[in-house]
Amino acid sequence: MNKDWLKMMDEKIQSWLQIARKNALESVNKDLKVDTKTSRKDLVTNVDKDNEQFFVRKIRENDPNSKILGEEGFGDKFNSMEGHVWIIDPIDGTMNFVKERNYFAIMVSLYVDGKGVLGYILDVVNNDLYHGIFGKVYRNNELLNKPDDIHLDYGLMGMSAPLLIENAYNMQTIAKQSEGVRIYGSAGIQLISVIKGELVGYISHLKPWDIAAGRVMCESLGLTVTTIDGNKLDMVSSETVLVATKIAHKEILDLVK
Ligand code: 2AM
Ligand code: CA
Ligand code: CA
Ligand code: CA
Question: Which UniProt keywords apply (predicted)?
Fold first, then answer.
């Protein structure tokens, strides 16, 4: 992997994220068009589509032989992680974006032969960029330390509402064992909290674009990222994902049914 090329791409991605951020903040106050996808709880806006098309165009200009996986379908169709694979979530937390105008993120990552090499989560409203490159993780330009390897019973646990309500995988027992549960409605914002050590972990049913950028950073920080069965993520399937400190990850796997 060419370090200079990655450094150059890092600068470009950061500038594209700022353009996508501006688009989101401007549109939310004037011309937001909201549609439903699979259900009334599954929304898409013109900003999700515009931002994804923008990233796809920029990536094709800069890395023409790569494959692109984007939530809104402007990328490519494939099922192998061979070569350069860019993964885009143009607005993560679309429901929050529409209803709260806060707590949403823009996420981009690059995997090379299945290994995460670049990962970006931009907390749009706070303009806080978390990014992983060369095995290190930064909040804006500040290097982040590894979070403490804490136990489940001394940590706040991030979850998704449907899993907790349905008690899928014995989720309510995991919730009770933790110090408390937090549900933010954006995988990206939840993963930022895990990266910062505010949450001991996070469990949600996720698509590759929900976890791709966060995974790069979590693994660099010594956190464990697997499926809820403890298996490796393949980054092309939809999975129930478990991210946690090393110790809590083991404790949670023991509670999963
Ligand atoms: P999204 O906003 O990019 O769709 C809470 O809804 C979190 O789960 C968000 O990060 C959301 O990402 C993600 N998510 C994944 N699948 C979803 C679905 N079918 N409906 C709503 N949110 C989904
Ligand atoms: Ca969506
Ligand atoms: Ca998402
Ligand atoms: Ca999205």
Answer: Hydrolase, Magnesium, Metal-binding
